C-alpha cells in the first residue's frame, strides 16, 4: 500500500512548490494517476490470474467526473459511471468490501501523485476532493447494494416459481414474468431454445407474447442468430426499424431497446433469451445485470431438467431391459445366475434355483456355498475364485451330482466393467442327460455296425477264396459246354466284385475304428501298375473295352497295391455307370511335381445334388430313374469312392470329379511324387 501525507497551502512548502486547485491537478495528471493505479494493481495481484479491473479503463472518465464534482459541487454532475462500476463488480462476483478497497487504492494513488509532483493544494481543496470522492464511493456502494438486493429478490422469486412448477413446461414463462415484474422498463421477454438447426420460441410474456410463441428462426438468422453466433450479450437501440430483427413481435411500432443473452452450458448453446422496451433506448446496467443473472439461473434450470429427463429415460430403459431380462430368464429351461465378487447371488432364474433346491428369492444376497449342494461347492468355489482373479472363462464343464444320474454342462464367464475389471460371474447350466444318453446309444449303434462290418468282411474272405479257387479250376476243364463255361465266368465276375466289396468294407472299418489306412510307399511306375490292373479287370469284364494312354515321366513313390485299388474302384464305378457300348478310358500323365491319373466314361451324368457328397461313405449313384432291372445291377454299397478319397489323401494327393451330359464323367487323381500335406499338390 502507498503511505503518504496530504498537503495544503498551510503546510510549509519546499522551495519551488506549487499551489494548485484539486480539479486542475486531476485533469493535468490523469495519465500519471492511471500509471500508479496499474502498478498498484499488479503488485496487489502478483502471481494470481485476475480479470482486468473495471476502473482500469474508466479512470480517465472517473477523474474527469471527480474534477467536475469538485468544481461545481452538484450531484447532477454525477453520471452513470458509479452505477456501471457497481454492476460490473457485482457481475464479476466482488463483495462490497472489495469494491470499497478499489476506491481506497485509487484515493491513495491520487495522494501519492500529489506528493510525487511536490504539489500543494489550495486551502479547502483537499477537503473538497475527499468529499467528492466520498460521494462517488457512496453512490457506487448504494448502487451495488441495491443491485445485489434486487438480484437476490428476483432469484428468490425464481426459486419459488421453480418450486411451485411441477415441470419445465410452464416454468420458463413464470421466470420471464418475474423479470418483467422486477424491471419497470421491460415490456416483453422471450426464451428461444435450440432445436435441431433452429431457434424456437418456447416461452414469451408481455407485448406480442401470443403471436411469438412457437415462432422459429434459423440458428444464424437475425438479431437472435447474431447473439447465438457470437455467444455474447448484444443490445439494440431501435428494434422496430433495425433490419436485423426477424421476429414479428420485435418489429412492433415504437419498440426501442432490445437486449439478448445466450444461454450456455459450457461450450454448448442451449438457446437465447431477450427482453425489450418501449420506454428506453438502452437498458440500464442494473437491468442488464439482472437479466444476465436470471438467464444464468434459467440455464441452470434447463440443464437440470434435461439431466433429469435423461435420467428418467435411462431409468425407464433400464426397467424395460430388466423386465425383458426377467422374462428371458424365466422362460429359458437353462439355469442362469449372476454372482458378485464375493460369490453372492445377484440374479437367478427358476431353473437354476430348482437345481440348487431353493426359491429364487432365497438365493438373493446369499453366498454360493450357502445355497448350492456341498459337492458343487467343493467343485466350483475354487474354480470361481480363480476366475475372479484371472478373468479367464470356463466353457462346457460337465459334471454330475452325487446320487443323481443326470449329467449337467456348465459355462462360467466373468462380468467385466468397461475398463476390464471383474464385477462378478455369470453361470449357465444345462441338463444334457438326454443328449448324453442319445449320444451313447448312437455311438453304440455305430460301433456295432462298424465292428459287424469288419467281422463280416474278414470272415467272408475264406468262403469267397474257396469259390474263386473252384471257379478257376473249372475254367481249366476242357469238356465244359458253352452254357457251363458262361456260368463259370459269371461266378468269377461275381466273386471278383464281392472281393472288392469286402476290401472296401475292411478299409472303411479301419478308417472308422481309428486304425487308418496303411500305406507302404515304394518307388514304382504308375503307368505299369495301371496297365497290370487294367489287364486283371479286363479278365472279369471281357465284353467291355478298357483303354490306357500314358505320357511323360510316371515314376514316383506310392503304394502299388493302393494305387491298384484306387484304379480298380474308379474303373469299376465307370463300368457300372457308363454306357456299355462305349470304352472306359484311363490316362496317366507325368507332370513336374505329380502324376495325374484320369478315368473317363460316357453315360448319365452324376446328379448335381450328389456332387458335394460324392466321396462320402454310403453315397451311391441315384438309380430311382432307371429301369428296375438296370437299377438292380447298378446298386452298390457306396464305399468305393470314399475309399478312393482316403487312399489318395493318405498319399498327400487329391481327387476331383467333373460330370455333364455332353462330356461324360471324369475322375482326376493327383499323385504327388513325394509326400506332402494332405490335400497338397
Structural class: alpha+beta
Adjacency order of strands in the biggest sheet:
5-4-3-8-7-6
Regions with little confidence, pLDDT below 50 for 5+ residues: 1-12, 623-635, 677-681
What is the overall silhouette? elongated
C-alpha end-to-end distance: 98 Å
Task: Report the biggest beta sheet as strand number plus sense, adding barrel if it closes.
Answer: 6 strands, antiparallel
Give an account of the 3D structure:
The protein is 50% helix and 19% strand. The chain is α+β, with helices and mostly antiparallel strands and 681 residues long. A hairpin with a 3-residue loop joins strand 17 (584-590) and strand 18 (594-601). Helix 1 packs antiparallel against helix 3 (54-72). It is elongated. It starts with 17 loop residues before the first strand and ends in a 9-residue tail after the last strand. Mean pLDDT is 81; it is low at 1-12, 623-635 and 677-681.
Amino acid at each position: 500500500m502507498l503511505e503518504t501525507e496530504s498537503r495544503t497551502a498551510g503546510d510549509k512548502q519546499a522551495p519551488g512548490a506549487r499551489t494548485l486547485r484539486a480539479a486542475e491537478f486531476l485533469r493535468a495528471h490523469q495519465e500519471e494517476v492511471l500509471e500508479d493505479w496499474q502498478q498498484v494493481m499488479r503488485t496487489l495481484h502478483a502471481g494470481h490470474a485476475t480479470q482486468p479491473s473495471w476502473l482500469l479503463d474508466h479512470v480517465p472518465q472517473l477523474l474527469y467526473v471527480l474534477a467536475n464534482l469538485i468544481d461545481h459541487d452538484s450531484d447532477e454532475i454525477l453520471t452513470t459511471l458509479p452505477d456501471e462500476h457497481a454492476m460490473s463488480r457485482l457481475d464479476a462476483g466482488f463483495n462490497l468490501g472489495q469494491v470499497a478497497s478499489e476506491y481506497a487504492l485509487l484515493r491513495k494513488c491520487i495522494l501519492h501523485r500529489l506528493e510525487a509532483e511536490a504539489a500543494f493544494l489550495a486551502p479547502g481543496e483537499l477537503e473538497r476532493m475527499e468529499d467528492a470522492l466520498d460521494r462517488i464511493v457512496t453512490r457506487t456502494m448504494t448502487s451495488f447494494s441495491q443491485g445485489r438486493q434486487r438480484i437476490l429478490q428476483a432469484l428468490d422469486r425464481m426459486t419459488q416459481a421453480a418450486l411451485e412448477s411441477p415441470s419445465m413446461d410452464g416454468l420458463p414463462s413464470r421466470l420471464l414474468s418475474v423479470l418483467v415484474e422486477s424491471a419497470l422498463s421491460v415490456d416483453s421477454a422471450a426464451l428461444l431454445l435450440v432445436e435441431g438447426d433452429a431457434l424456437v420460441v418456447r416461452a414469451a410474456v408481455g407485448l406480442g407474447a401470443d403471436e411469438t410463441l412457437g415462432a422459429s428462426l434459423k440458428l444464424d438468422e437475425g438479431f437472435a442468430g447474431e447473439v447465438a453466433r457470437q455467444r455474447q450479450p448484444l443490445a439494440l437501440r431501435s428494434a422496430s426499424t433495425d433490419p436485423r430483427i426477424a421476429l414479428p413481435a420485435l418489429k412492433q411500432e415504437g419498440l426501442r431497446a432490445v437486449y439478448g443473452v445466450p444461454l450456455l452450458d459450457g461450450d454448448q448453446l442451449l438457446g437465447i433469451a431477450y427482453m425489450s422496451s418501449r420506454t428506453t433506448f438502452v437498458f440500464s446496467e442494473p437491468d442488464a445485470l439482472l437479466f444476465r443473472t436470471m438467464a444464468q439461473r434459467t440455464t441452470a434450470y434447463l440443464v437440470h431438467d434435461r439431466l433429469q429427463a435423461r435420467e428418467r429415460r435411462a431409468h425407464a430403459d433400464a426397467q424395460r431391459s430388466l423386465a425383458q431380462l426377467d422374462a428371458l430368464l424365466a422362460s429359458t429351461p437353462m439355469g442362469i445366475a449372476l454372482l458378485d465378487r464375493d460369490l453372492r447371488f445377484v440374479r437367478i432364474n427358476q431353473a437354476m434355483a430348482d437345481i440348487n433346491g431353493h426359491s429364487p428369492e432365497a438365493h438373493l444376497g446369499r453366498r454360493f456355498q450357502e445355497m448350492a449342494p456341498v459337492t458343487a461347492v467343493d467343485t466350483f468355489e475354487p474354480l470361481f475364485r480363480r476366475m475372479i482373479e484371472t478373468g479367464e472363462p470356463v466353457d462346457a464343464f460337465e459334471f454330475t451330482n452325487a446320487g443323481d444320474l443326470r449329467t449337467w454342462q456348465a459355462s462360467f464367464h466373468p462380468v467385466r466393467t468397461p475398463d476390464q475389471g471383474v464385477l462378478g460371474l455369470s453361470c449357465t447350466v444345462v441338463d444334457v442327460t438326454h443328449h448324453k444318453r442319445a449320444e451313447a446309444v448312437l455311438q453304440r449303434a455305430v460301433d456295432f455296425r462298424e465292428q459287424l462290418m469288419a467281422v463280416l468282411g474278414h470272415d467272408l474272405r475264406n468262403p469267397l477264396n474257396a469259390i474263386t479257387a473252384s471257379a478257376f479250376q473249372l475254367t481249366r476243364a476242357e469238356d465244359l459246354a458253352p452254357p457251363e463255361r458262361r456260368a463259370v465266368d459269371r461266378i468269377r465276375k461275381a466273386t471278383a466284385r464281392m472281393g472288392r466289396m469286402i476290401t472296401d468294407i475292411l478299409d472303411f472299418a479301419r478308417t472308422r475304428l481309428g486304425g487308418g489306412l496303411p500305406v507302404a510307399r515304394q518307388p514304382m511306375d504308375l503307368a505299369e501298375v495301371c496297365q497290370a490292373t487294367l489287364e486283371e479287370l479286363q479278365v472279369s469284364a471281357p465284353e467291355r473295352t478298357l483303354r490306357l494312354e500314358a505320357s511323360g515321366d510316371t515314376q514316383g513313390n506310392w503304394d502299388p497295391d493302393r494305387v491298384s485299388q484306387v484304379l480298380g474302384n474308379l474303373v469299376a464305378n465307370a463300368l457300372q455307370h457308363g454306357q456299355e457300348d462305349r470304352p472306359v478310358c484311363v490316362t496317366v500323365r507325368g507332370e513336374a511335381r505329380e502324376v495325374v491319373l484320369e478315368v473317363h466314361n460316357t453315360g448319365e451324368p452324376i446328379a448335381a445334388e450328389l456332387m458335394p457328397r460324392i466321396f462320402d461313405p454310403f453315397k451311391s449313384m441315384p438309380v430311382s430313374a432307371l429301369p428296375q432291372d438296370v437299377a438292380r445291377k447298378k446298386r452298390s454299397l457306396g464305399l468305393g469312392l470314399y475309399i478312393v478319397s482316403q487312399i489318395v489323401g493318405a498319399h498327400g494327393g487329391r481327387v476331383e470329379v467333373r460330370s455333364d451330359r455332353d462330356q461324360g464323367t471324369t475322375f482326376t487323381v493327383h499323385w504327388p511324387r513325394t509326400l506332402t500335406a494332405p490335400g497338397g499338390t
